[in-house]
Prior knowledge:
Helices cover 45% and strands 11% of the residues. By secondary structure, the protein is an alpha/beta fold. It binds adenosine monophosphate and magnesium ion.
Amino acid sequence: MTDFRRELRIEPGTRVRLAGRDLGDTLGWDKARAEPATTQELDRLADLQDRLWAESKRAVLVVLQGIDAAGKDGTIKKVMTAFNPQGSPVTSFKVPSLEELAHDYLWRVHRAMPRKGEIGIFNRSHYEDVLVVRVHELVPRTVWSKRYDQINAFERHLAANGTTIVKFFLAIDREEQRARFQARYDDPTKRWKFSMGDLEERKRWDDYQAAFDEALSKTSTDVAPWYVIPANRKWFRNLAVATILADTIADLKPAYPPVAADVPTGLVIE
Ligand code: AMP
Ligand code: MG
C-alpha cells in the first residue's frame, strides 16, 4: 500500500524546486494495477461524499492548479464521476471580470466557497493571483509578494470555520506540455481548446516554474497542504488525486445523521 499523502505532500516550510523532480514518477505503480485501484478509490469517494452530504456539517475544498495542459480538466472529469453533482460544485476561475477586479482578489474566491456538505472543486483559484499575475506583472511585486501571507491567513480562517482544504499541483514537464499541445492541435475534437496564446505562455515556462516553486514553498500549511502530483502519466495522476482525496475525507469520518426523534422503529407504511 502506497501512502500517497506521505509521499506527495509538501511539508510546511520546505523549499520546493519542481525542476528537480521526476514528473513521470509512478511510485512503483503500473497502469494495469492502477486502473482497478482507481475504480476502488472512486467507489470509496462516492460513499464518503454521500455521508458528507447527508451530514451537512463540514465542507471540503479541492484546489487544482497546474500549467496549461497539466490535466486540471481531465482530473475533474475523471474524479467527479464519483460524485453526486448536487453536492459537488465546480468553479473555474478565468481572467477576472470588471466587477471582480473592482474588489480585492479573494472576493470572488470567498463567494465560490463550498457550503457545508459540499465538496467544492476549484479549477484554478486564488493562486492565479501569485502565478499569472506575477508572471505578467499585472500588479507590482510589492503587491503580489504580500499575498502568500494573506492566502495563508485566508485559508486558516476557512479551515477554522469548518472547511477542509486540499490542494493539488499537477506537475508536468516541458516536453509533456509540448506533446499535449501537439495532440490537442492534431485532434479535430480538441483543437478548439488550443490557442496561440498557449504558445505565448509556454515561452514563459521558466517564469511560471519560479512562480510555482515560490507559491508551493510558501503556502503549504498543516491546515491547507499542497500535494505535488507527478502528472506526466494521466492514469497515475488520477489514482493519486482520488486516493489523497478519499484519505482526507475519510479522516473527517462523515456520518449519516441520526433518524428523527419522532420516527419509531418497526414502522410499516400502508
Ligand atoms: P483556462 O483555464 O484555459 O480556461 O484559462 C483561464 C485563463 O484565465 C488562464 O489563462 C488564467 O491564467 C487566467 N486567469 C485566471 N485567474 C486569473 C487572474 N486572477 N488574473 C489574470 N488571469 C487569470
Ligand atoms: Mg487554457
